[in-house]
Amino acid sequence: MTDIDQPGHDQARDRSLRVLLSAYALSQLGNWLFRTGVVFFAYNQNNGSTAVLTTAIVLVYLPILFGSRLLAPLADRLDTRRTLIGLDALRAVLLTVLLVVVWIGVGSTSAATIGVMALLSVLTPFFTASQTAYLRRVLPSERIPGALASVSRIDWSTFVLGTAAAPLLLQYTDLPMLIIVDIVTFVVSGWLLVRLMLAPKPVDGPGGGQAGSWKPRLTLSSKWLLVSVFALNAGAGLINVYPNVVARDFLGGGAGWLSAINLANGVGGVIGATLAGRLRERGGLRAGVLAAVVVAVSLAGMTFVTTAWIAILASSLMLLAGQVFAVTFQSRILADEPVAVAGRVSGLFTMCTFAGVTASMLLFIGMTSSESLRGSFTALLVLASVVALVSAVVGFTALRRYGDRSAEPVLTAEPVPLDARSERP
User: Fold this and answer.
1) 44 and 190: one domain?
2) Where are the bilayer-spanning segments (predicted)?
């Protein structure tokens, strides 16, 4: 058994979960404020340069792939509580340096802000992996889907707030004030994380040694599910450009349509994360496979780009189902793998997610560069629907081969005193 059954642990775990989620909400709000504000600032400062806009977006996603592959596995070897606090502190320091650079006017402000954004993106999967590893060590297996659903709900809630607030902050104040607000969110987040209880130390695999030094191969079920994750995001990743393209090129270019689509998508994401939490007790992997089918159908519905209510409803439904898929599949992969490699598993999940998104962006650039946007974009959405359906087929195959629910992981975790404040070295 991996779960810890000590008297009094339930209250301590619940308190730590609330602290962790509160800190994450603050840090994610800071992330979205900064990302949205920097992209808007750089785009505006360079007279609407699409090259700058594309570069800024790439520097949000590409570093996440590197961070997922190179940094996320470190979460299994480090003290997760101290790592989370340290990453918040490091992000606050990076933003403080940027604030000084902006104030004294050294070099290009746009280049400096985009550069810091890229560094923050590299650190993001490391933070996510450390948070996931902490949750996997502290919570019983059956509570992991609910915790991941809460994390997803925070992601989308802060997305809505951050993307709406950042342009307003820049409009009524300036870039330094936006940076200061971001610094405050990371500082307060780090201060909250000091209150986390100790996470139990995972017991290593055969041969002993430090936790995380034994790196077993992924189970076959996890490999199948990661392929499904990549395929789904290779189709659904078009949502990153869908609101802008539909609002500008198919609905008359009104900013109001862009806001309406983004707001509906954010609401869909929040509802989907909430629904994923409700399904955790009975859905199993089957709920995730069904969600992949809904994503495929929604992408097909998104081809009605000139009918506003269908376009908005379909994209919102796609994101709703996407959250159910993500929470269900990540929970299953974490349950199938040892506790001691939760950070590595989180990094692989993030890498497959953003590799799929990157593939969808490359398809978008390739298919819309030489033909009329109306025809090529519709064809691209149909192709994305087919790819998402392939994801559902792969997930269904895994369901048939390995069952709806996972077996208990092999490794265990050592109990620790309730009043301990940091993990043992």
Assistant:
1) yes
2) 21-43, 49-72, 84-106, 175-194, 224-242, 254-276, 283-302, 308-329, 341-365, 377-399
The answer to whether the CB of 355 falls within 8 A of the CB of 236 is: no
pLDDT higher for 160 or 384? Answer: 384
CA distance 193 to 172: 32
Alpha-carbon separation of residue 247 from 160, 244, 273, 308, 312 (angstroms): 18, 5, 26, 9, 10
Judge whether 240 and 361 are in contact, CB under 8 Å: yes
Residues 228 and 164 in one domain: no
Determine the Cα–Cα distance for residues 389 and 297; give it in Å rounded to an integer.
8
8 Å CB contact between 329 and 395:
yes
Task: Tokens 């519905």: give the residue.
Answer: 301
Percent of the chain with pLDDT over 70: 82
Range of the domain at 76: 1-197
Complete DSSP assignment for 342-354: HHHHHHHHHHHHH
N-to-C CA span, the chain: 23
Closest C-alpha among 133, 148, 137, 125 to residue 72:
125
- Which residue in the block uniquely carries the two structure tokens 């009918």? 307
> Is the pTM here over 0.70, yes or no?
yes
Residues 6+ apart with CB under 8 A from 84: 20, 23, 127, 130, 131, 134, 190, 193, 196
